[in-house]
From TrEMBL:
Residue ranges constituting the Putative DNA-binding domain according to the UniProt record: 7-100
Top-rank lineage group of the source organism: Bacteria
Pfam families assigned: DUF2063 (PF09836)
Organism: Methylotenera versatilis (strain 301)
Protein name: Putative DNA-binding domain-containing protein
Classification via InterPro entries: DUF2063, DUF2063_N_sf
């Protein structure tokens, strides 16, 4: 390693580690105005402040929920626990939910807010792909529908919550006083996607979650209908699957359709 490369590596280690225990300070010459330790501490603090700012941008309502002091404390702990490995700071922060499950285990709603906000941001930044229209789908003969498999937008994701997380998030986003945290009677599922350059979400039933997961994994329309027959008769299953499909098309979730050939 060249002397310059070693100097750069030592400086990076200084920024990422505890500045007080770093030997890199010895590589910097003092001057009469500001000591080497003081000058380096400016870089050390600025690095963390920039990342805290990026985390606050990614999690605005989490910050509103926790308050500035607690959020900054959590963010700095996160930086230590999860050093950035990204060239683009936009993608830093994806482990916040896991971090909060440990550091704020007594307040699980914080982790759920983080999970929801991160999913919204990923939907917003997901790759742009064309949307399949109902008119395009209607050109497929009815006898082929059983073998239809759908391809979904990269922005599509389902988030599950156990608390009244979304109501709290909505109140915070509207700058209103949020309701007290309360555990729901059962898990709630929320479909997240992007439409017209905006992240969208809506609550969906557990039955639709099953159908959607199957569709995303490549199941055919016929297979989705068959799975619904466990809960209802054939006609109801067909109607329910068609209703789900119509909603997915209307929301722009589907990008393409493929006819699957089954070999006997």
């Amino acid at each position: 390693m060249s002397q310059l490369a070693k100097l750069q590596a030592d400086f990076q280690a200084y920024l990422l580690d505890d500045a007080k225990s770093s030997s890199f300070i010895k590589a910097v010459i003092d001057d009469k105005k500001v000591s080497a330790k003081k000058r380096l501490s400016i870089y050390h603090d600025a690095y963390r402040l920039r990342i805290v700012e990026a985390l606050a941008t990614a999690y605005p309502q989490l910050k509103a929920l926790l308050g500035d002091l607690l959020f900054n404390k959590i963010a700095r702990e996160y930086i230590t626990a999860y050093p950035s490995t990204y060239r683009n700071l936009r993608w830093y922060g994806g482990e916040m939910r896991e971090h909060l499950l440990t550091t704020l285990a007594q307040h699980p709603i914080a982790a759920e807010v983080a999970d929801f906000e991160w999913a919204l941001s990923l939907a917003f930044d997901a790759e742009n792909v064309p949307e399949l229209t109902l008119q395009e789908l209607s050109t497929i003969p009815p006898e082929n529908w059983d073998t239809l498999s759908f391809r979904f937008q990269p922005a599509v994701k389902v988030v599950r919550t156990r608390w009244n997380t979304i109501r709290i998030w909505q109140a915070l986003e509207a700058e209103e006083i949020p309701p007290k945290s309360a555990q729901e009677s059962s898990y709630q599922s929320w479909l997240i996607w992007r439409k017209n350059f905006n992240s969208q979400f809506r609550q969906i039933t557990e039955m639709e979650v099953i159908a959607l997961n199957m569709a995303v994994m490549g199941a055919t329309f016929g297979e989705i209908c068959a799975s619904l027959e466990v809960e209802m008769d054939y006609e109801q299953a067909m109607a329910t699957a068609a209703q789900y499909l119509a909603g997915w098309l209307e929301n722009g979730l589907i990008s393409n359709v493929v006819l699957i050939s089954f070999i006997n």
